[in-house]
């Protein structure tokens, strides 16, 4: 097991498991974690011995989204905000347009940016106790990672608006019914079953699998890139808003 503190990389035969490793902050996405995740994804996509990538979180949650404590420092000037949003989108591109199939293995909370990265992944497997929500509108912030283009494709425009505008929390079974997930698994066998499913896929002929991903994502790329551009502009505007800063201070993690 190789570790850089913020992202742990484990190799299970042809499966590379990347573990967000800030459990004390529910793996909230500080700039430093985003930088490490970007590097880890690039390395996994470039590794000939890796066929499938699994993304999961250490500790009680997958990812609580943007680190609002970190944001109180990084979100006060335009240059820092641009860097933060740019890193979110670099990670998204590495997941969506990288060569390898990426499976999100989600337990506990997937909130805000964590939920957005989950949506970027090719396949999603949920622990039965997983919970999700978009807090951005309630904080005066904005969604990122191309989800304004991706999510309507997955669950429809009306359901996308409802989830993003309301900020309502929802569970794994609701996500499955919406079409956000491939499978929901029992907690007591979640990690083992995820690896088994990933290894089964890793044993398939990889050229066909990768070409399938490439063809399907090529058709979406222009739409997603347009969404990323607009999201970045609005996310930067809202992050610099003093009212958004005040709201962010009032709620630093999901309940």
List the defining traits of the structure above.
255 residues; 2-enoyl-CoA Hydratase, Chain A, domain 1; 3-stranded mixed β-sheet; 10 strands; globular
Secondary-structure blueprint:
Elements: E1 2-3, E2 7-12, E3 15-20, H1 31-46, E4 52-57, H2 68-74, H3 78-97, E5 101-106, E6 109-111, H4 113-120, E7 123-127, E8 131-133, H5 136-139, H6 147-155, H7 157-166, E9 170-171, H8 172-178, E10 183-185, H9 190-202, H10 206-239, H11 242-250
Parallel strand pairs: 3-4, 4-5, 5-7, 6-8, 7-10
Antiparallel strand pairs: 1-2, 2-3, 8-9
Helix pairs in contact: 1-3, 3-10, 6-7, 6-10
Describe the largest sheet: 7 strands, mixed
Number of helices: 11
Which second-level CATH architecture applies? Alpha-Beta Complex
Which structural class fits the helix and strand makeup? alpha/beta
- Total domain units: 1
What features would you describe in this structure?
The chain has 255 residues and is α/β, with parallel strands linked by helices. It has one domain (2-202): 2-enoyl-CoA Hydratase, Chain A, domain 1. It has 11 helices and 10 strands. β2 and β3 form a beta hairpin. α6 packs across α7 (157-166). The longest helix has 34 residues, at 206-239.
């Amino acid at each position: 097991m190789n570790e850089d503190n913020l992202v742990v990389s484990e190799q299970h035969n042809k499966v590379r498991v990347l573990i967000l490793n800030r459990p004390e902050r529910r793996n909230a996405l500080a700039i430093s974690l985003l930088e490490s995740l970007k590097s880890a994804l690039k390395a996994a996509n470039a590794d000939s011995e890796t066929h499938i990538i699994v993304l999961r979180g250490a500790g009680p949650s997958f990812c609580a989204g943007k680190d609002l404590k970190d944001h109180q420092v990084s979100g006060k000037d335009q240059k820092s905000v641009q860097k933060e949003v740019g890193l979110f989108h670099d990670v998204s591109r590495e997941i969506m347009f990288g060569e390898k199939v990426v499976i999100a293995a989600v337990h506990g909370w997937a909130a805000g940016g964590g939920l957005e990265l989950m949506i970027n992944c090719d396949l999603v497997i949920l622990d039965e106790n997983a919970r999700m929500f978009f807090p951005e509108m309630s904080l005066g912030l904005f969604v990122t990672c191309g989800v304004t283009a991706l999510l309507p494709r997955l669950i429809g425009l009306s359901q996308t608006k409802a989830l993003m505008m309301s900020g309502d929390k929802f569970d794994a079974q609701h996500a499955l019914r919406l079409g956000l997930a491939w499978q929901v698994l029992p907690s007591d066998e979640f990690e083992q079953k995820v690896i088994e499913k990933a290894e089964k896929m890793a044993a398939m002929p990889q050229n066909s699998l990768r070409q399938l991903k490439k063809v399907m994502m090529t058709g979406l790329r222009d739409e997603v890139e347009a969404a990323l551009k607009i999201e970045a502009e609005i996310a930067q505007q809202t992050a610099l808003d003093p009212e958004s800063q005040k709201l962010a201070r009032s709620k630093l993690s999901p309940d």
